[in-house]
Amino acid sequence: MPHRLYLPEDPVTGTRIDLDRERAHYLTRVLRLRRDEALIVFDGAGRAWSATLADAGARSATLAIGALQADEPPPAPAIHLVQALLKGGAMDTVIQKAVELGATDLWLLQAERSNVPGGERAERKRAHWQRVIESAAEQCGALHLTRLHPACGLDELLARPPAPNMLLLDPGAPLLPVDLPRADVALLVGPEGGWSDAERAACEAAGVRPVGLGTRVLRAETAPLAALAALRHGWGWG
């Protein structure tokens, strides 16, 4: 199967694109592609093209863009993962796997018990997390990039809910149903320390439905992935 590369440059059939140093290094040093080898490029908005590595050097590479191979509409229904900020590599893991599991949107939440500062730190990490999304999409075959939204607080999120159906993942709550209607949904997942009583009360007042994943205590980076997989399975992975 050809390797895949995300290209934000809006590829056009019959043109050539000079890659930046990072992407050139990825193709020639990491993937070890050679001149005239084929690959697939995609724009993150549903379209994919065939391409060949027309030229490759130590620090540069050029792609020849071929025919359009796919033009897909945005995935529906939308799945919004509202993830409280986590420490260290746990956040990278959640983002990477959420892309693989079909989350269409990722909202970064500064919860009361988040062990990492939000605001400026989250904004500094945005470029890194965006690249995690792009890399995961390249690996899993997605044609639409998961949208990364700025960090916000719970009150701000509840004032402008991302989806009409809102689920609060909370230990001890009734099990997440596997027969939820196929409609846009937002899944709110807390930090390592869990939700505070005030946050639970705010969600209840806003009509957010609490759901759980059984009796086992899952790590903060495991719970959202288990919930996303259960949700997608209930929808037949469509």
Strand-helix topology:
Elements lengths: L2 E4 L9 E3 L2 H10 L7 E5 L4 E10 L4 E11 L7 E6 L4 H12 L4 E6 L9 H21 L6 E7 H6 L5 E5 L15 E5 L7 H9 L3 E3 L11 H12 L4
Parallel strand pairs: 1-3, 6-7, 6-10, 7-8, 9-10, 9-11
Antiparallel strand pairs: 2-5, 3-4, 4-5
Helix pairs in contact: 2-3
General description of the model:
The protein is α/β, with parallel strands linked by helices and 238 residues long. It is built from six helices and eleven strands. It has helices at residues 21-30, 89-100, 120-140, 154-159, 197-205, 223-234, and strands spanning 3-6, 16-18, 38-42, 47-56, 61-71, 79-84, 105-110, 147-153, 165-169, 185-189, 209-211. It has a six-stranded parallel sheet with strand order 8-7-6-10-9-11, with helices on both faces. α2 packs parallel to α3 (120-140). The radius of gyration is 20 Å and the shape is elongated. The chain starts with a strand and ends with a helix. The model has no long low-confidence stretch (mean pLDDT 93).
Report a brief summary of the structure.
The protein is of the alpha/beta class. It is built from six helices and eleven strands.
Helix content: 25-40%
Distance between the termini: 22 Å
- Shape, per Cα inertia axes: elongated
Mean pLDDT over the residues: 93
Strand order of the largest sheet: 8-7-6-10-9-11
Instruction: Give the helix/strand class.
Output: alpha/beta
> How many DSSP helices?
6
Uncertain runs with pLDDT below 50, 5 residues or more? none
Task: Characterize the main sheet.
Answer: 6 strands, parallel
Total strand segments: 11
Q: What is the beta-strand fraction?
A: 25-35%
**Element string (H = helix, E = strand):** EEHEEEEHEHEHEEHEH
For the CA atoms, what is the radius of gyration? 20 Å
